């Protein structure tokens, strides 16, 4: 056993895929999730894939007393991967306090407990949203943050600053922030995947739900951008590749390979793909005809962003291996399973 890892938000989309990869690589996994955006059955699905059922605790990480009690009950945690957060950009504009409270307090409570329980290592879910629209592409880690477009984006910037400040004065605490680009797809078993509540805000779940007949039509937000086909460009990354990056980050921490006790890495493929390219790939790979129309730009959208991943490739020894075809095939397999198609 390599170590015992607390995976917060482990019943969620990226957390569940990471729990699978951690178990596969020899870690013990303990999940804390309040199921505010996920379902308890995910824990059984992780067991189906791996043959191992992670321990599961259902409570809110913002409850400092419960969190302290958890660490007293569950001895021997060696590291933390912190996924739990509220993540809907639009909702964060409507309910900023919910986002600041949940995303900041959960991290602060965890850091308090790292100190109390001498747990040295934490991997944090950050986002390419910290960069806004970068001036130069591909975007490297030393690109300065732009003013956040949303309270959600601001929480990611503030959380990174909190970890950086804490790391400066606590040599015994180590942090790695992974800045995810656009995670899509699902585990190839179709046992776990993304389960958006209500109408999806993100492109790929909206595509798969449209193909499944749940949505009538996909709206493509703008075709007059300065890109090859006029639609916006993103760096889509398969969620299993992303999950593997967390294992590499944790390996780096337990192997004491960090160069500084606060590090941050871009986690993307390095490829930019336009909305129309995503749609065409989905249609080709799945043999589905997608009903879509071009509408106005979505306010706040960046035009084009994709990662320079040299740092993660060289330092973490990690590289994305699954391409956009696989992402679409796996996203569709998952949708078909969820929709009984
Ligand atoms: P998700 O909503 O599927 O998973 C988050 C999980 O955390 C959910 O299961 C939810 O129930 C749980 N949770 C939320 N607040 C909690 C709390 N206070 N206490 C206990 N559990 C709580 O989201 P995801 O897509 O898996 O995202 C995971 C992380 O990655 C988040 O921090 C998110 O901001 C970040 N991220 C996501 C994306 C993306 O596009 N999905 C991109 C960049 C960064
Ligand atoms: C991708 C592209 C849309 C839906 C968001 C967050 C970001 C990060 C990842 C967490 C854009 C277009 C979308 C639709 C469309 N999350 N689109 N029709 O906006 O890059 O990033 O998720 O950290 O913070 O902002 O992802 O999937 O919403 O959009 O045309 O119905 O698809 O305009 O160009 P985005 P997305």
Shape: globular
Bound molecules: nicotinamide-adenine-dinucleotide, UDP-4-deoxy-4-formamido-beta-L-arabinopyranose
> Low-confidence stretches at least 5 residues in length (pLDDT < 50)?
none
Number of helices: 11
Proportion of strand residues: 15-25%
Name the average pLDDT.
98
Q: Secondary-structure element order, as H and E?
A: EHEHEHEHHEHEEHEEEHEEHEHH
Count every beta strand, where a strand is a DSSP E run of 2 or more residues: 13
Largest sheet: 7 strands, parallel
| Helical fraction | 40-55%
- Please give the radius of gyration in angstroms: 19 Å
Distance between the termini: 39 Å
* Spatial strand sequence of the major β-sheet: 3-2-1-4-5-6-11
- Helical/strand content category: alpha/beta
Task: Summarize the structure in words.
Helix 3 (about 65-75) packs parallel to helix 5 (about 95-115). This protein has a seven-stranded parallel sheet with strand order 3-2-1-4-5-6-11, with helices on both faces. Strands 7-10 form a two-stranded parallel sheet. It has a two-stranded parallel sheet with strand order 8-13. The longest helix is centred in the N-terminal third of the chain and has 21 residues, at about 95-115. With about 350 residues, the protein is of the alpha/beta class. Helix 1 (about 15-25) links the parallel strand 1 (about 5-10) and strand 2 (about 30). It is built from eleven helices and 13 strands. About 40% of the residues lie in helices and about 15% in strands. It is globular. Nicotinamide-adenine-dinucleotide binds near residues 83 and 84. Nicotinamide-adenine-dinucleotide binds next to helix 1, helix 5 and strand 5.
């Amino acid at each position: 056993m390599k170590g015992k890892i607390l995976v917060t938000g482990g019943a969620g989309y990226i957390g569940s895929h990471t729990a699978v990869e951690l178990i596969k690589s020899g870690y013990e996994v303990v999940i804390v999730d309040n199921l505010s955006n996920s379902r308890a059955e995910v824990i059984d699905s992780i067991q189906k894939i791996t043959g191992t059922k992670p321990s599961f605790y259902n409570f809110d990480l913002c409850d400092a007393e419960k969190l302290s009690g958890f660490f007293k009950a569950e001895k021997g945690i060696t590291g933390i991967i912190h996924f739990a957060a509220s993540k809907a950009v639009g909702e964060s504009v409507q309910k900023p306090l919910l986002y600041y409270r949940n995303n900041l307090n959960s991290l602060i409570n965890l850091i308090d407990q790292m100190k109390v329980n001498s747990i040295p290592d934490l991997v944090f879910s950050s986002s390419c949203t910290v960069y806004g629209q970068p001036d130069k592409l591909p975007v490297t880690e030393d690109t300065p943050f732009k003013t956040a477009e949303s309270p959600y984006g601001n929480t990611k910037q503030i959380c990174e600053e909190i970890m950086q400040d804490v790391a400066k004065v606590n040599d015994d605490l180590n942090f790695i922030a992974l800045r995810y680009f656009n995670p899509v797809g699902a585990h190839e078993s179709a046992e776990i995947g993304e389960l958006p509540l209500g109408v999806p805000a993100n492109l790929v779940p909206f595509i798969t739900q449209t193909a499944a007949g749940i949505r009538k039509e996909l709206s493509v937000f703008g075709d007059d951008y300065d890109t090859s086909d006029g639609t916006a460009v993103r760096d889509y990354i398969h969620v299993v590749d992303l999950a593997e990056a967390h294992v590499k980050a944790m390996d780096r921490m337990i192997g004491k390979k960090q160069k500084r006790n606060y590090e941050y890495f871009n986690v993307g493929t390095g490829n930019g793909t336009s909305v129309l390219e995503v749609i065409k790939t989905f249609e080709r790979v799945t043999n589905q005809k997608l009903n879509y129309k071009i509408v106005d730009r979505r306010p706040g959208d960046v035009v084009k962003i994709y990662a320079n991943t040299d740092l993660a490739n060289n330092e973490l020894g990690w590289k994305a291996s699954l391409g956009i075809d696989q992402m679409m095939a796996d996203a569709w397999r998952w949708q078909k399973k969820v929709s009984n198609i």
